Amino acid sequence: MRVSELVERSGMPLATIKFYLREGLLMPGMPTSATQADYDESHLRRLALIRALTEVVGLSVQKAREVIGLIDAPAGDLFETLGQAVAALPPYLDAQGTDHPRARAALERLGQVYDPSYAAVGQFERALEAAEAVGLPMSDERVLGYGEHVMAIAEIDLSGIPTNSPGDAIQYAVLGTAIYEPVLAAMRRLAHQDLASRRFG
Amino acid sequence: MRVSELVERSGMPLATIKFYLREGLLMPGMPTSATQADYDESHLRRLALIRALTEVVGLSVQKAREVIGLIDAPAGDLFETLGQAVAALPPYLDAQGTDHPRARAALERLGQVYDPSYAAVGQFERALEAAEAVGLPMSDERVLGYGEHVMAIAEIDLSGIPTNSPGDAIQYAVLGTAIYEPVLAAMRRLAHQDLASRRFG
Hints:
The structure is a homodimer. Chain A is mainly alpha-helical.
């Protein structure tokens, strides 16, 4: 299809599509003349992925490019690639501290195995620190309560991992981590409403 | 304390503090002369809150101001204020559609009570649509599995709501919704690592 059809079917302005081409998030079409190129379904799927990562997950164009790059060409095994993908997700850390006292205490209490250099450890520390700073520190009870149910959610995630190819497994792990976070956040907001209306409504 | 001490204790540059004052996120100090003002612990706590909302929750300055405004001066009851706060959280919707087929189907399957005009319904629809668009649609099984554990997490949240004053309850609900989302996201990322290392490591 021509770029005009890509504009129509994706619902994205031409300028936006050209920007993603220039920034390397959208792969080039097959040139058909000096000024035209041919696009296919893979370009439409890619635009949907870019939109999901930027508008729903909330990544910057730069971070979305990092995540897409890992799906296109994983640099290592599942662990390594997922670690790199998680580092492209918020919250972002100013200084990569090596000590994460709050995260370490919580993970020890939960009895979880973790690699201290994994980006999520620093992100957990930053999130716990922020909760403390606004006067809502995570109590031990809340750590254990959340931990039990988050682990059950992670079990569901892992049970869905494709086993046919390492590439598919990496794509599922990277995208599933990012794309189900807004789903879970929305579900929690809705669960609060359900509970509150039953209790106080 | 003088503004120089606020800079030192908050670790924020003077230009940033002045920007938050100008934008109305930080309340003015008590004037002590034509060019100086006196600040106290409440200003330090407010700066910590602004930092948590912008750097950890990932809100823009405009959205952080909306959330802070709701805590400072709730416009309605708990439900109404929480609804307004949730609308200030991502994902943001281009057009406020009134039909949310995916969200409605999932909430009916879960048997949850919901107000269709609540911002989280549109956010849930947008998140489900994005998951579908990138080739990872939420299966019924995943909706039910996630739903059970998210509801248990929401029960923990609701059990911690302060009952001494409506203002405290609103502050807890608004801040707790926003501030524990990055905590839960980090915990899920870490639970994946724990499970994967036990299973494949």
